[in-house]
Amino acid sequence: MPTNPLTRRLFALLLIGLLSACSGLAGEPQIIATLPHTTPAPQQVNFPTAAPDLALGAQIYAQNCIRCHGAAGRGDGALIGTGENQIPNVPRDFTDPATTRDQTPLDWYNTITNGRIQNLMPPWRDALTDQERWAVAMYTYTMAYTADLIAAGEELWTVGAGENPALPTQSELAQLTDAALVQRAAESAGALQYVGALDDQQRRAVAAFLRSGALAGVEVIGQPPAEIAQAVTPPQPQPITTPEITAEAAAASLVGTVTGLVTNGTAGGTVPPDLIITLHELDADFNEVSQEATVNPDGSFRFDDVNIRADYSYVVTAVYQDRIFGSSVVPGNTTAPVLELPMTIYDITGDSSVMLITGLVTQVVVAEGSVQVAQVFSFTNTSDRVFSTDEFFAENQYGSLTIAIPPGAQLRGFADTQQRYIIGDNGLTVTDTAPVLPGEGHILHVLYDLPYTGDLQFEQPLNYAVEGPVRLLVTPGSITVTSDQLPSIGPQTLRSVTYQGYGSTFSRPSGEVLRFRLSGIPVSGSAEGSPNVIPVNTLVPVLLVGGGALIIVVGLFIYLRGRTPAAAAPTPPPPTDAQTLIDGLIRQIAELDDAHAAGEIDEPTYKKRRKRLKTRLSELIDEEA
To answer: Which of 217, 188, 205 is nearest to 97 (CA)?
Structure first.
């Protein structure tokens, strides 16, 4: 295990994040987490079948949320603060429109469902029904609305677009930001030009009017939730078992036992009799206490006299064939003296024939002089071994997947941590160092530019067999796309951006070359209102039509920020990669801790700086979650 304080903290963060497959730290074997996140996103979302009831949401909020989020939703509840038995992580201000600007109600619902254990917010999936979670999600999502704002929005809409706006279905509404909702409604009403001329505050008012029209109990908007709770009785009330993790409960602890069983998921594979298991106890600041034990002949292990705390997380790891395998990360449960942490290890294979490309999206924005490309590859390991080659890089990094980018491309970066990737000497290959688990999906994102002078033949070798949907999305609409492989599938609108869509379901051997031709001059707004510059979003879901797979196209929008300004809008400064910021903050906290331990910083200054750094770190982790 790492001995350097900074490395140990980075290792702890990596374990807390629990990526399904993530690169090892410098000087350490590859880390392979074999179980899902502690609070995974639900595999299936039960979208509301009727209008969510804000009055019901207000009552649930008053009963269960005020102590942290505050009576008005400003994040100033009684449990929030730096005092004894308080929670230092300050929640976001629901009354600030910026809080929901880039969020959808579905984002809200997922957070309520899955919780954020690292911020002591519990999951509510078992305590509240789907109806109740949607009600409180929509109530908190609309806390920035007021009755006056809705009335102003109604007047603006009536003047420019007429009465009775055509609203999407409840499931569609749940997946639209307010800005995207306004865009969708304006398109349906033929009022794009009118809405486009409105300022930000006016569009926000229109959004409040449109959104409230699809909700029940809107009369409670603007009223304090505690007063609403006294006046409203929800239909068919059910007792709620609150899974709340308070600061007082978090401080409770017991001396317990951590046990588990190590199994080898590879057919014929065994668990080495001398396999060392390391138990990591991680506090909210990513500080770690660890201890080791050797597996028993039957693969079981046991740690006695473990300090079990509700505000700690626990995970076991083992080094097998030069890679680190890990269990799930589990929060402490002070009501159970035994914590179970089973773990699966796998043998290693470097046989590329076990890997399939099961989905590929190529997202293209043609601008003057360049073609900006974001690609998302979805891989599946069809074997019962972890895919990781013997290609050795510096400090125990081993290669796994390798993709080629087209000749002439200039690599710009990646949507996730760049530490995963090794760029070839010629700049035209990218090797992922994250191993691929058996049967698990594995996503690889890459961003690059190609020069463009009005005509471009795109050719990209595919190093692995393809069995699944392949999609090409191109904007603006003035660009002509020619491809024998990818027929047109019609316009594809994603968060109010319209692309020309092309695609097919491939069943091709490795070595196939993806080909298409782009020609024409990029003209802004030339197709279905599609802009030449994609709006600033960090995540755009791309549904692979007919393939049933969902791939998340990430990061192109981060890259595009600051490269090509929107018309009549100032150019924002290019953002810093979120993972880089997180790593930098962790490094600063570690350096601050070391300086304090060495007596170089006095106690008040140390606490003040550390609190500020922790608050910012929590915000970034929340944003990445």
So the answer is: 205
Q: How far apart are CA 553 and CA 363, in angstroms?
A: 8
pLDDT of 421 reads 84
Q: Which CATH number fits domain 5-33+252-346: 3.90.199.10, 2.60.40.1120, 2.60.60.20, 2.40.10.10?
A: 2.60.40.1120
* Cα maximum dimension of the chain: 77
Q: CATH fold of 352-560, please?
A: Immunoglobulin-like (2.60.40)
583: which 2 tokens? 């790593």
DSSP readout, 507-554?
EE-TT-EEEEEEES---TT-BTTB-SS--S-SEEEEEETTTTEEEEEE
Q: What mean pLDDT comes out for the span 497-524?
A: 91
* 207 CB neighbour count, 10 Å cutoff: 25
**E strand or H helix at 422, and its extent?**
strand 421-423
Q: How many residues does the chain have?
A: 625
Amino acid at 560: L
- Strands 465-475 and 355-367, by their bridges, are parallel
Contact 546, 364 (CB under 8 A): no
Query: What pLDDT is stored for residue 338 in this prediction?
Result: 92
Q: Residues near 150 by Cβ (< 8 Å), separated by ≥ 6?
A: 205, 208, 209, 212, 218, 221
Q: How far is CA 575 from CA 228, 373, 473, 539, in A?
A: 41, 18, 24, 15
Q: Note the CATH number of domain 54-231.
A: 1.10.760.10
Decide: 97 and 153 in contact? Cβ < 8 Å.
no
- Residue 75 — very low, low, confident or very high, per pLDDT cuts 50/70/90? confident
Long-range contacts of 287-293 (CB under 8 A, 24+ apart): 287/9, 287/12, 288/8, 288/9, 288/11, 288/12, 290/1
Q: Which two tokens stand for residue 328?
A: 């799930």
Res. 296: pLDDT tops 90: yes
Q: Are 358 and 343 in contact (CB under 8 A)?
A: no
pLDDT-derived band at 82, boundaries 50, 70, 90: confident
Mean pLDDT of 439-447: 82
What local confidence, expressed as pLDDT, does residue 2 receive?
Answer: 42
